[in-house]
Amino acid sequence: MAEVLTRTPIHLLPQDVAERIAAGEVIERPVSVVKELVENALDAGSHEIRVEIRGGGLRLIRVTDDGYGIPEDELERACARHTTSKISTLEDLSRLHTLGFRGEALASITAVSELTLLSRPIESTNPGEESAAGLLTLRGGEVTQRSRRARLHGTTVSVRDLFYNVPARLKFMRGARTETNHILQLMRRYAVGYPAIRFNLTIEEAVALQTGGAGNLATTLAELYQLPLAEMLHPVSASSEHYTLHGYVGNRALAQSSRQHIMLFVNGRWVQARPLQDALEAGYRGLLPKGKHPLLVFYLDLPPGDLDVNIHPAKTEVKLLHEAEVAAALTQAVKSVLERSPALPSSSPFPGPELVYQRRLPGPRRRGLHVADSAEGYKAESAPPGAAEILATLRPLAQLQQAVILAEAPDGSLYLVDQHRAHERVIYEHLRSKHVGV
Q: Residue 233, by phi and psi: left (phi above 0), alpha (psi -120 to 50) or beta?
């Protein structure tokens, strides 16, 4: 007997189902939540942004800022879908000066978690002192608590039990370590993109990232990676009627096995624009081994009308009106720097170590020419007896300004070797071996 087909009538989805489906487009994993909340904090004019992560972000994500804040009577509205203070008309999309504009972030987060929003506007009485701030808690999109709590001006958003009501999404989550690594990588991008803002990231109550907000990119890079790194970056800038760009081009010694250190910011927004990334790498063509990628930091400023960021809810993809011209400029900017800047020869046996993400050099036992900890920072010290022995075992890692060699000893110690004095010593030993008694 033939199967009888039946038709399901067209009907409107229940609101909670529609909300969860929509949330899936914006909130893919914990790092998506951090991205949306940090960008809200940046748009609010914050000078300091603190992020706390527990359980890979599934148990807790808390973002605290000192921005403009939200009035108490607007808290619930801020958590509704398609509500925003950033645009009012369609024409505003061509004049965007903010990172957010869709009015979907908080609504998407509340649909799949428990979210607590605590905020006090800066225009309130005595903004430099603690006073009552509005507090609102929602779970699965439903309000569960309204109250007040003392705090300085700014906003704190706490997200707990992420994806508690979406078991299918939880099933595909990676381990806590993987999720926190995504968050750490994201926070590094913000710190590089906004060097004048103080960022603090704690993971399981341990500080994983901290910047001072000095406003200097080289200083921020030194804080995020390692001290010699800033000495291996070369500044670049260019402009035309359609764009202005500036940034840093990394020495070939900093080549890495992944593209995660190619950072491009367009109008303050970190973007994944493959044509532009390819244009940046084209400047290194023939200079890097196959499978290696450079370290680059570029800031590109365009007229808002020449940029379309409304491509995907994640807002990391963009379209440029003059893309070919901008891409050519990026390639030429990289080439011009590499042509006039000293760099390691392409035949160098040590293209550079993978970047080490720590704020201080390690401190195991040290011998030979080394960098020592001191109250004033790092200082050079003379080598103790037996320096020649350790020099023979050093593994070169990188060359700094054609004057100093960064090398690693078998025990993991890092050494800075004055290459000119080392060369003189080589010549001396060579002559000495030929003329005993010299």
A: beta
